[in-house]
TrEMBL record, chain A:
Assembly, per entry: Heterotetramer; composed of two copies of TRMT6 and two copies of TRMT61A.
Residue intervals of the tRNA (adenine(58)-N(1))-methyltransferase catalytic subunit TRM61 C-terminal domain: 64-305
Function (record text): Catalytic subunit of tRNA (adenine-N(1)-)-methyltransferase, which catalyzes the formation of N(1)-methyladenine at position 58 (m1A58) in initiator methionyl-tRNA. Catalytic subunit of mRNA N(1)-methyltransferase complex, which mediates methylation of adenosine residues at the N(1) position of a small subset of mRNAs: N(1) methylation takes place in tRNA T-loop-like structures of mRNAs and is only present at low stoichiometries.
Protein name (record): tRNA (adenine(58)-N(1))-methyltransferase catalytic subunit TRMT61A
GO terms for cellular component: nucleus; tRNA (m1A) methyltransferase complex
Keywords noted in UniProt: Acetylation, Methyltransferase, Nucleus, S-adenosyl-L-methionine, Transferase, tRNA processing
Disordered: annotated span: 256-276
Gene name of the encoded protein: Trmt61a
Record-listed E.C. numbers: 2.1.1.220
Taxonomic superkingdom: Eukaryota
Stretches that traverse the bilayer: none
GO function term, MF aspect, one: tRNA (adenine(58)-N1)-methyltransferase activity
Reactions that this protein is recorded to catalyse: an adenosine in mRNA + S-adenosyl-L-methionine = an N(1)-methyladenosine in mRNA + S-adenosyl-L-homocysteine + H(+)
Entry's localization field: Nucleus
From TrEMBL, chain B:
UniProt-annotated stretches for the region Disordered: 28-60, 228-277
Similarity comment text for this entry: Belongs to the TRM6/GCD10 family.
Primary location class: nucleus
Record carries keyword S-adenosyl-L-methionine: no
Intracellular or extracellular location(s): Nucleus
Name of the protein: tRNA (adenine(58)-N(1))-methyltransferase non-catalytic subunit TRM6
Gene: Trmt6
Lineage: Eukaryota, Metazoa, Chordata, Craniata, Vertebrata
Alphabetical list of Pfam families matching this protein: Gcd10p (PF04189)
Annotated transmembrane regions: none
Length: 306, 451
């Protein structure tokens, strides 16, 4: 297993994702002789996990079962231990595309935080690219290093423990892209510019507040960045439900058969969309928005150095 | 070569040798001239009003007439100077607020100062461009939705991906960019051949195409049922005949060869250059007797060339079929104009367990159906139906606000992760689902309650 490469079978030392159902899951570090408790019972790593295929169904001691999944940056994002507020896959995906990242890209990032974005960046730039990530909080930097080592991607990333606003990224003229997720990104724009390649590159700054965006945009303009563009992306998730609506009784039911009468007047109502099961109701499938959704994560400001 | 863009025509010759991101001005002759950063000269008159209470729209604020402006343009005067003239001849300009002046200048500059920036192709540029210019060709797949697909699909170097798209090759190109030439891609195509108009815009180096395979969608069923191999496994034509005689009866053989020729002629239609060539040879074939000797010779060469190409194609087809039958693909990406359910149910067979898949559809309803059918089939978890909204912002001092909301038009995604199928259960439930609609919808209700 590696976060940058698929493997078939589960091995000692792997990080695997235990999927319990209903979007509930957690990561485990696979180790000989270790056991993991779930609400469906115990999983014994030596016998239940090691040597099995990723994607297998594992029966736990109480007869319940779980699926064991190969780790991906997206699954990791949903399961990682939070040390800070993290970026989720929706924002990560647009950042990756707008920064034009691909295998071989050199990326600078600050701060590392919980490493949610870092894993996605490493995945995309592997096997020939590199991530230089700067975290001013010493323990977080240390923890991130440890995780990268555990996940088999340490050769693709360099973690530096310093203040990016004061000391920059520790590299110059080598990056294809820079990402900033810090409280005062405008103080790091100059360092970002010098980290980017002489022939140019892309930059992105993530800020929750519009005032931060304002100052960042001004700084970007001042440093000669072009194509400055601010956007926001929102994810809407739908639950798939079969819904049945009752047909109101308007007094005609006594004369003709109401359910068949409705069906024949509604040819589009057949097939997968819906069928009337009981008398007086219509069933259909619907994608129902969640009752609550994430309304705002942050503004993403992109620009080009050319 | 002459190129027309936004009502301007020009030659690209002068742009060679400049770095990407260089901005050019179009001159009257259609030549491009690199433009440097210009100092804002118009800001010298810092006179401005505070509100518009005294500004009346009488249609007479601009003292220059249409003809005057046209005359200026015909004289070949720089756009910048025309804008300056327009400002000087506007009676209300000084009364406008500073912001309104800014807006006025920007609007006029857009119209009179034709500048073009030449940039390097990338998924970002091309997907934005396609969505703005030809959304119909890419099934209204908005660029942020494409970005989601690439991430949800865990697209990266070294993967073995299956891609089924009718988005002019844009999705394929995006996947190729993210894989950087490492790993392999199998493109499933409908009809005669894969469409890669957008893919060619990326300007990928040749090695990227070495591990790009294609496979006709119409052969998927036979591949899954195992009847595919008897048709096309032998690569030599003689072997082909022999093998077929051994394994099949005479009638079968006839049918197969018919099928094959049919398929091959359709393949040809996709390659425009080849098409005419082949039609020629076919016509000649019919009127063989009438043809002259030298023509016949030419014809023979053509036929041989054609046969060689056919063998090559068949060889590739067999290779691709072998790749598919390993059933260990690292992911599946679907973005087409077809109904997604049958595509998913068949193509997922080729994907290894614990791998992501993503289906795009312009409409939500087919994905609802697909969701239900996948639940019945089993072998998938973490199914998620989603959509993204994208909001662009204008950020200027004291004038920051959202630009436009793009909703609905970006399409929907159904994503999930494959797992090992339960033995015994899948086939029966799959058939059941096809046969009877009613019990299945009841069952879903129960499943829905669970999640």
């Amino acid at each position: 297993m590696s976060f940058a490469e698929y493997g078939d079978t589960i091995k000692d030392g792997d990080t695997a994702i235990v999927f319990l159902g209903h979007e509930s899951m957690f990561p485990v570090k696979v180790q000989h002789g270790t056991v993991t408790q779930t609400k469906y019972g115990v999983i014994r790593h030596s016998t239940d996990l090691i040597g099995k295929k990723y994607g297998s169904k594992v029966t736990c001691s109480k007869g319940g079962w779980v699926f064991i999944l190969h780790p991906t940056p997206e699954l990791w994002t949903m399961n990682l231990p939070h040390r800070t507020q993290i970026l989720y896959s929706t924002d990560i995906s647009i950042i990756t595309m707008m920064l034009e990242l691909k295998p071989g890209s050199i990326v600078c990032e600050s701060g590392t935080g919980s490493g949610s974005l870092s894993h996605a960046l490493i995945r995309t730039v592997a096997p020939t690219g590199h991530l230089y990530t700067v975290e001013f909080h010493q323990q977080r930097a240390e923890k991130a290093r440890e995780e990268f080592r555990e996940h088999g991607v340490e050769h693709l990333v360099t973690v530096t423990n310093q203040d990016v606003c004061k000391n920059g990224f520790g590299v110059s003229n080598i990056a294809d892209a820079v990402f900033l997720d810090i409280p005062s990104p405008w103080e790091a724009i100059g360092h970002a510019k010098s980290a980017l390649k002489a022939e140019g590159g892309r930059i992105c700054s993530f800020s929750p507040c519009i005032e931060q965006v304002q100052r960042t945009c001004l700084a970007m303009e001042e440093y000669g960045f072009t194509e400055i563009n601010t956007l926001e992306i929102l994810l809407r998730v739908y639950n798939v439900r079969t819904i049945s609506l009752q047909i109101p009784d308007l007094g005609q039911a006594a004369e003709d058969n109401s359910s068949t009468g409705f069906d024949s007047s509604n040819p589009s109502n057949q097939g997968s969309l819906g069928t009337s099961l009981q008398q007086g109701t219509v069933q259909f499938k619907s994608g129902v928005p969640l009752r609550e959704m994430v309304g705002h994560t942050g503004y993403l400001t992109f620009a080009t150095k050319s | 070569r002459k190129i027309i863009f936004e009502k301007q025509w020009f030659y690209l010759d002068n742009a060679i040798g400049h770095t990407y991101g260089t901005t050019f001005e179009v001159t009257s002759g259609g030549n491009l001239q690199p433009k440097q950063e210009v100092e804002e000269s118009t800001t010298e008159t810092k006179e401005a009003g505070t509100d518009n209470r005294n500004i009346v729209d009488d249609g007479k604020s601009q003292k220059l007439t249409h003809d005057d402006i046209k005359a200026l343009k015909d004289k070949g005067i720089k756009g910048q100077e025309i804008v300056q003239q327009l400002i000087e001849n506007s009676t209300t300009f000084r009364d406008k607020t500073e912001f309104a002046q800014d807006k006025y200048i920007k609007k006029k500059k857009k119209k009179y100062e034709a500048v073009i920036t030449i940039v390097k192709p990338s998924t970002r540029i091309l997907s934005t461009m396609y969505y703005a210019r030809e959304p119909g060709k890419i099934n209204h797949l908005r660029y942020d939705t494409l970005a989601q697909m690439l991430t949800l699909g865990n697209i990266r170097a070294g993967n073995k991906m299956i891609v089924m798209e009718t988005c002019a090759g844009l999705v394929l190109g995006a996947v190729m960019e993210r894989m950087g030439g490492y790993g392999s891609i199998i493109q499933m195509y409908p009809g005669g051949g894969p469409v890669r108009a957008a893919t060619s815009c990326f300007g990928f180096p040749k090695p990227f195409f070495d591990n790009l395979h294609e496979f006709p969608l119409s052969k998927v069923d036979s591949l899954l049922s195992g009847t595919f191999s008897t048709e096309t496994l032998p690569s030599e034509p003689e072997d082909n005949v022999l093998a077929e005689e051994e394994s099949n009866g005479l009638t079968d053989e006839k049918q197969i060869s018919l099928q094959e020729t049919e398929e091959e002629s359709t393949t040809e239609t996709a390659m425009e250059i080849n098409q005419t060539e082949e039609q020629d040879t076919m016509d000649i074939n019919v009127e063989d007797a009438v043809c002259k000797e030298n023509k016949e010779k030419e014809n023979k060469d053509n036929v041989r060339e054609k046969q060689r190409k056919q063998w090559e194609r068949r060889k590739k087809l067999i290779e691709t079929a072998a790749l598919l039958t390993e059933k260990n693909a690292d992911g599946l990406i679907v973005a087409s104009k077809f109904h997604p359910t049958p595509l998913l149910l068949s193509l997922l067979e080729f994907v290894a367990p614990s791998r992501p898949f993503v289906v795009y559809c312009q409409y939500k309803e087919p994905l609802l159906d697909c969701y239900t059918k996948l639940r019945e089939r089993g072998g998938v978890i973490n199914l998620k139906l989603s959509e993204t909204w994208l909001r662009n912002y204008q950020v200027l001092p004291d004038r920051s606000h959202p630009k436009l909301t793009m909703s609905g038009g970006g399409g929907y995604l159904l994503s999930g992760i494959t797992v090992v199928l339960d033995k015994g259960k899948p086939d029966s439930s799959h058939l059941e689902a096809l046969k009877m609609e009613e019990p299945s919808s009841k069952r879903c209700k129960v499943q829905d309650l669970h999640c």
